Model the fold of this input.
Amino acid sequence: MLHLAAMTKHDIPTKPGCSRDRNIGDNAPQPVRALRDWLDHLAARDRLTVLKPGVDLRFALAAIAKRLDGRRATLFPKPGGHPIPVVSGLISDRGWMAEAMGVEPGELLARFQEAALDPVPWQEVTSAPVQEIVHRKVDLAQLLPLPTHNEHDSGPYITAGLMIVRNPRTGKQNVSIHRCQLSGPNRLGVLLLPRHAHLFFEMAEQRGAPLEAAIVVGIDPLTLLASQAIAPVDVDELEIAGALHRRPLPVVKCLTSELRVPAEAEIVIEGRFLPGVREPEGPFGEFPQYYGERGDRHVMEVDVVTHRRDAIFHTVGGGGLEHLLLGAIPREATLLAHLKRTFPNVIDVHLSPGGTMRYHLYVQIKKRQEGEAKNIMMGAFAGSFDVKHVIVVDDDVDIHNPTEVEWAVATRFQADRDLLVVPESQGSKLDPSTRDGVGAKMGLDATKPLSAGEMVFKRIRVPGEENVDVERLLAETGGSSWRDVVKG
Ligand code: MN
Done:
């Protein structure tokens, strides 16, 4: 008899151009590939609140989104009277992210890393929903519902826009998210940190040329997440989105440039970064819960805005969970892969919410060797300059529960023996306790010593505790009062 599994595997038909499609079986949940499908998914699970029309774009919208952050996504019809609705809080929960990928929460980092390492080239289409409506006379404040988020923000911002630019030498695209301040009717002040988009701009500016750019607003959660991948230069993050979708991403050529943008997006803003021009931008409420300061920043001039006939605008509240998680998951995936290369006994990592999902890293290990935790800390500091404090724990500690991690520090850590401090290292410039990004690193080894006697670090446990069905118990305990019981 033929081996059925082997036969099935070889019999999967492969169409030309679709050879990179992943067959993941009929019963496996599919990844979510469109924003509108994701809104349906949230609504069906009662996680999407549709507000009354007309919420003010200045603060009121952000205030409501923030209060519901992590529990419910929000949709604001006619915000400030504007015809385009605004959504927020679309992926402000780790479990939701896993659902969007079609995996279990425990597989989230591995799945993201797999996609980042094996991108799927996009597929070009000639007509796209995102180009249904074309505005060639641009007044951004009039065309788009731009919210103002935090108290001292300099004004309205685009916060959830995928910035797409091309390497002037190789033509390869880059996708990243930047805060974009409304600076004039067709002018945006953009913070370009020294990464890929900034590098491409410098290459253009050195020749005195502008850098073409497109900002994509309103996109599915996985493409949004892919934009945050820590990928090498000349890896187009839209191809990582294709890998997360398990299908090539449909893209369309921009009207004014060679850039390719997701065809299914809601809104695209096309323009150019101006060489030799810097204008004031900020302050703006950032992920550490402080303001990023005002400074002279890059300027994008907008030529065209295109959108769907019934477009939706997405905004991410500065410092909200959606903001934090979008950055945290790709960072965790990269740090985990980085640590596992040298330390195969590292099980999991977590960037904790209290540590702004950037500065505090919890590492769970299966300890084999004394001193190893300190090597792992040094590996983590080298893996991302944002990582400031590292706590290493054993495999019996739940690193997604800060109380458990604190318990491990309280009972397994001694400062004179288990503390590592590295002074004057590179950190985050947005950490106000550093001197312009220079500060100390700290590592805490909260693992048990291997030599300890068996009962010394034995965690107490009530036998059968984990099997108690609390809901059923409460339902079964009728209405007897304690007095009846005591009287007998
Ligand atoms: Mn990149």
